[in-house]
Design a protein that fits this description.
This protein is mainly alpha-helical. It folds into three domains: 10-100, Fumarase C, Chain B, domain 1, CATH 1.10.275.10; 105-353, Fumarase C, Chain A, domain 2; 355-453, Orthogonal Bundle (Ribonucleotide Reductase Protein R1, domain 1), CATH 1.10.40. 60% of the residues lie in helices and 5% in strands. It has 19 helices and six strands. It has helices at residues 10-16, 19-22, 26-42, 48-67, 79-91, 104-140, 160-184, 204-211, 220-225, 228-254, 282-305, 320-340, 348-355, 362-371, 376-393, 402-405, 415-420, 424-427, 437-452; strands spanning 145-150, 153-159, 187-188, 215-216, 262-263, 345-346. The strands form three sheets. It has a two-stranded antiparallel sheet. A two-stranded parallel sheet has the order 3-4. Strands 5-6 form a two-stranded antiparallel sheet. Strand 3, helix 8 and strand 4 form a beta-alpha-beta unit. The chain is elongated, with a radius of gyration of 30 Å. The mean pLDDT is 95. Bound molecules: arginine. Arginine binds next to helix 6.
């Protein structure tokens, strides 16, 4: 006699059933069911013949899933129930043995860990591709100069290669974060049962090896409660999406007529339905806008886990949709960046003209005074006076006559005009990590080595 006398309310069913979205865990569920069947065999729960029947049945289920012919039924609450039901339809009563020594609690945690490990690997691969492209662009544009900005005001000139390498290192850190998430996901929950462990001493280490985990979760309560690996993946994805958003934003800005530093890749842009002259950098705009959605996924999952007593609660079913959406979003965004990068055309002349704005050499004039013994703070004041005078007079800094210089500081002489001479400001940034050609060459080598180390 079944435990329940009433059928579930349809509204409850709609709320409670996860099949709509967790069906994408099916391939992982089949794989772990195979490993679990072997563990049951090892523990003497199923005999040789039963094991073979179960494995053949799971192969048949797998084929149905792959071909899209798997008959999901409205009564299937989730993917785990669907697969067990179908397995039993195919192989008969012995199918009912597959759930021995297993709970959907350790099962779903295992599927999810497999998903995270795999997708973290995909993110690393996509990121690596982006890093290669960015490094290539940095090499190509190492001699091009543009203004660097702070507060989106022209600040100091930099090499475009240098600026692009700032993107490189930003995304390079994301690789490490996805790897940490993958490592967290490499501990096997399966074999923990509902929460307390099993009445069979299954070979968990063997299951772990078969499924590509490198260790087992050592506490059964922790195993079914833990979603840290998903949170860590989402944190990595959220920050990565945030980085892509900043890159997208720069491409958008740079491709305006006002900046005119680049033309976005045509295959990643759209026209306007009304204004024929337009080429809109849609892909870059969408990179810019996807980040909050990925961050929201992270917030959702930490929100679900917040205050949740151990061990499993149905709340944890809410881990999936944000995780899946974030994974799809970050991977698509990374593919879009990789796709659009080679097609961007940089306008070296426009950038150089903007970088030739003498005002961006103000710090270098101050440093000239510092070399002559003036404390930097005083030098800053002197140059502030020069800048103000030039602006008021409507002339560039270099047009201030030699005889007027002494009125600002008697430390100023002809070298003032040399410092303002185009180019000297950029090549003077000789510090490690700076934008001078020599420092940039070192940096390119370091970036290449760090990429090579990724294997
Ligand atoms: N669909 C469930 C989830 O995604 C599977 C685990 C159900 N466990 C349970 N005790 N009802 O979390």
């Amino acid at each position: 006699m079944p435990r329940f006398e009433q059928e579930p309310d349809p509204v409850f069913w709609e709320l409670n059933a996860s099949l709509r979205y967790d069906r994408r865990l099916a391939p992982y569920d089949v794989r772990q069911s195979r490993a679990h069947a072997r563990a049951l065999h090892g523990a003497g729960v199923v005999d040789d013949e039963e094991l073979e029947t179960l494995l053949d049945g799971l192969d048949a289920v797998d084929r149905e899933l792959e071909s899209g012919r798997f008959p999901f039924a409205p009564e299937d609450e989730d993917v785990h129930m669907a697969i067990e039901r179908r397995l039993t339809e195919i192989v008969g009563r012995v199918g009912g043995k597959i759930h021995t020594g297993r709970s959907r609690n350790d099962q779903v945690a295992t599927d999810l860990a497999m998903f995270v490990a795999e997708r973290a690997g995909v993110a690393v691969a996509e990121l690596t591709g982006c890093l290669e492209l960015i490094l290539e662009l940095a090499r190509e544009h190492r001699d091009a100069r543009l203004p660097g900005y702070t507060h989106l005001q022209r600040a100091q000139p930099v090499s475009l290669g240098h600026h692009l390498l700032a993107w490189f290192w930003m995304l390079r850190r994301d690789v490490d974060r996805f790897r940490v998430a993958a490592d967290s996901a490499a501990a096997l929950p399966l074999g923990s049962g509902a929460l307390a462990g099993l009445n069979w001493d299954l070979d968990r280490a063997g299951v772990a090896t078969e499924l590509g985990f490198d260790r087992v979760v050592e506490n059964s309560i922790d195993a079914v409660s833990n979603r840290d690996f998903a949170v860590e993946y989402l944190a990595a994805a959220a920050l990565c999406a945030t980085h892509l958003s900043r890159i997208g934003s720069e491409i958008v800005l740079w491709s305006t007529s006002e900046f005119g530093f680049c033309r976005p890749a045509e295959e990643f842009s759209s026209g306007s339905s009304i204004m024929p002259q337009k080429m809109n950098p849609d892909a870059a705009e969408l990179l810019r806008a996807k980040a909050p959605r990925v961050v929201a996924a992270l917030t959702t999952l930490t929100g679900v886990m917040h205050g949740l007593p151990l061990a499993y609660s149905k709340d944890l079913q809410e881990d999936k949709e944000p995780l899946f959406d974030a994974a799809d979003t970050i991977e698509l965004s990374l593919r879009a960046l990789a796709g659009m990068l080679p097609g961007i055309e940089f306008d070296h002349e426009r950038m150089a003209a903007a970088a030739a704005d003498e005002m961006v050499a103000a710090t270098d004039v101050a440093d000239l005074l510092v070399r002559r013994g003036l404390p930097f703070r005083e030098a800053h004041g002197v140059v502030g006076g020069l800048v103000r005078h030039a602006i008021d007079a409507g002339i560039p800094l270099s047009a201030i006559p030699r005889e007027e210089l002494a009125g600002f500081s008697d430390l100023l002489d002809d070298e003032y005009y040399e410092v303002l001479g185009e180019g000297s400001w950029l090549d003077s940034k000789v510090s490690r990590g700076g934008t001078s050609a020599a420092a940039l060459a070192d940096q390119i080598d370091l970036a290449a080595a760090s990429l090579a180390a990724l294997g």
